Amino acid sequence: MAELAQTASEEEEAHVMSEGARKLVTLAVMLSAIMVLLDMTIANVALPHMMGALGVTSDQVTWVLTSYSMAEAIFIPLASFLALKFGVRRLLLISVSGFVLTSAMCGQADGIVEMVTFRVMQGAFGASVIPLSQSIMVQIYPKSQRGKAMALFSVGVLLGPILGPTLGGIITENMDWRWIFYVNMPIGAICLALLYFFVKLDGRGPSKIDWPLVIAMTIGIGLLQMVLDRGNEESWFQSNEILLAAIISGIAIVFFVARSIYTKGDIAPVWLLRDRNLAMSCIVMAGFSMGMFGITQLQPMMLEQLLNYPVETTGFLMAPRGLAAAVVLLALARYMDRIDARLLIVIGLTLNVIGTYLMTQYSMNIDIYWILLPSIIQGAGMGLVFAPLSQLAYATLAPKDTIGGAVVFNLCRTIGGSFGISIVNTYFSRIQQKEWNELGGSLSLDNPLLQQAAHAQGTTMTDPSFLAQIQNLVHQQSTLSAFVFTFGFLMFSYFCLIPLLALFRPKPNTDA
Description:
The protein is an all-alpha fold and 512 residues long.
């Protein structure tokens, strides 16, 4: 009875909130989420510029990205506990304030140690923003408008990481790489003002910290993130460091999950996965994030390294994917609650399969049309997956569990993206090496086609310039084949997610 009364009370509160206040809260949490998510990818294109300023190698500078994602993955699970401890409003204000301050400190960093330290702090402060923002959207909209709420929130979730390289490229090329961090200061000031005046949710309650669980979670997720980020560079388990980190991570994660299920605590409440819709949503979201982040990692590599596009142009060519997702979400927001979410997800996954299939047809002669068309199709599909999937994740959860559900859901999104980038990099490098060996193995001095090519250029097969030309051609074609095969692998991964939708429970008829 008490739970039913709480549900009715929260539904009533959602209805009582004026439409104007709801819009301002929506703007506040969306802007905060976009700011945090932008910093996942905004620094990608600026790494070469940072190398000289920080005096580091290409291997060392990647810790600017790794440290942020590692801290975010570790601190996301703490959001539900911290919300109970400090309250939703206070925690958001602390998180955004800390994020803005550490962003300014990143811009001031003169060495790699300072930069990595401040990026860890930035990721730690920003980690709670995404699950709290999503939970607030669930709480301030009545169930009859929850699909619309998730559509609006998904605009920020998709635009942030996809537009990060675009904005980063523009700022780096026209201003200075330090401004990719300073730009958070005016945006953060607006967020803080909106959050302070319009977000009134408290949500404080009894909370207890479970130190064995926290320690196991920190070690397990932190080392897992390191293994995923550094594994391919270190030849995976051929490196004793990576092997040891993977073993310790596995043991710690098993302990952390078992203890969470046993204690049913507030920190990283994986025990909520007993709810079938949340569990299936997390699985599909992790799988979908693998493909999405894999493609957004791979395509800029292809445009810059293979097709020789400038950094700024590459950034602009990546933007239509996020813009298409935003357009689809905004166009369908008002209808989202009237259409079966599973149908929308099937259409979205199918569009991603089609868009990725078109990328398997790439050649060295593709034009802008062949770059933009698959991106737009994929972007439309992403919009049709993210919002309905978020809607299904909360469809059968009790209102008191929304923050915990958001924590688990976003943790799966983050780790799924890390797995995607790692798998794509490994698969790509293995295929590239395989294709290089196969193409190079067919070249010999008695190859008639090679003899004809040398004769047509008026040179001999032993001419160093001709050999260098052939070597460049082999590298080019092996790299192109690796991109095409990897896109095909990602297309298949999208297709495998479609049958999982049959396992979702129908949404209960409890709309307010």
